[in-house]
Amino acid sequence: YGGELRYLGTTSSTQDEARRWADDPQQPGSHGAVVVAERQTAGRGRRGRSWQTTGGTLVFSVLLRCGPRGQPLTLPELALLPLAAGVAVWQAAGVGGLKWPNDLLSPDGRKLAGILLEADLRGEEARRAVLGIGINVGAAPDGAAHLHEFRPELTRAELLSDLLRELRRWLSATPDEILAGWRAASLTLGRRVRLQTPTGPLDGIATDLDAHGSLLVSTPEGLRTVSAGDVQLIGD
Ligand code: BTN
């Protein structure tokens, strides 16, 4: 990862740049190509949210053209990829822990980093996906945390190189390794969480992950399996 790297000043979103690079007939980006930008004018987050780039954010996207064994990405691999990327971010940042599925939170629960996986699905597999990561390094939007509060010496360049190394490792890890890594990084398991369901909010205790990386939540209405969306951490 990062063997090919483009560094941009301002762009709409590094996700779009990575896609354009993949489609470039002259010099198509290869697997692991990385686009880093100083600023995004239309950075996006999960579930249609926007992602604000303040002066001190590290934002980049990685082009993935295949799964860990050189094959197209299958649905089970695609389900675990965001968790694997979360573990990589947690390891490189060296602080806090993960809220399911992959937000890196500070020890006091403020958001430090977010991850967005966009896969081009064809039926049950994808030949291409773009993994986007945004980390608040030297500054953060209101209510969020930044890494310099905990590791003032860390530079964005150092963090990027540590992260690319961890991504190389975790994106090719086995499902069992990814699940074990995620459990170790978790700030979610054992905690009270609130789920949004079609019939309203439902509270329970996050107990574990299943083999697909879905979150198992024990609620008064029975065990729920959460495979998409967000959970809210509540109380202790
Ligand atoms: C989230 O927490 O909702 C995910 C945030 C992902 C933001 C990153 S920044 C680099 C890449 N480019 C984007 O437009 N989004 C991702």
Short description:
The chain has helices spanning 14-23, 75-93, 156-170, 175-185; strands at 5-11, 34-40, 57-64, 73-74, 97-99, 103-105, 111-122, 125-136, 192-197, 200-209, 215-219, 222-226, 231-234.
Description:
Its EC number is 6.3.4.15. Residues 1-179 form the BPL/LPL catalytic domain. Keywords: ATP-binding, Biotin, DNA-binding, Ligase, Nucleotide-binding, Repressor, Transcription, Transcription regulation. Helices cover 23% and strands 36% of the residues. Strand 5 (97-99) and strand 6 form a beta hairpin. The protein has four helices and 13 strands. Helix 2 (75-93) runs antiparallel to helix 3 (156-170). By secondary structure, the chain is an alpha+beta fold. The protein folds into two domains: 5-185, BirA Bifunctional Protein, domain 2; 192-234, SH3 type barrels (Roll). The termini are far apart. It binds biotin. Biotin binds at residues 13-15, 40, 43-46, 49, 51, 59-61, 103, 114-116, 132-134.
List the helices and strands and how they pair.
Blueprint: E1 5-11, H1 14-23, E2 34-40, E3 57-64, E4 73-74, H2 75-93, E5 97-99, E6 103-105, E7 111-122, E8 125-136, H3 156-170, H4 175-185, E9 192-197, E10 200-209, E11 215-219, E12 222-226, E13 231-234
Parallel strand pairs: 1-2
Antiparallel strand pairs: 2-3, 3-8, 4-8, 5-6, 6-7, 7-8, 9-10, 9-13, 10-11, 11-12
The chain binds biotin (BTN).
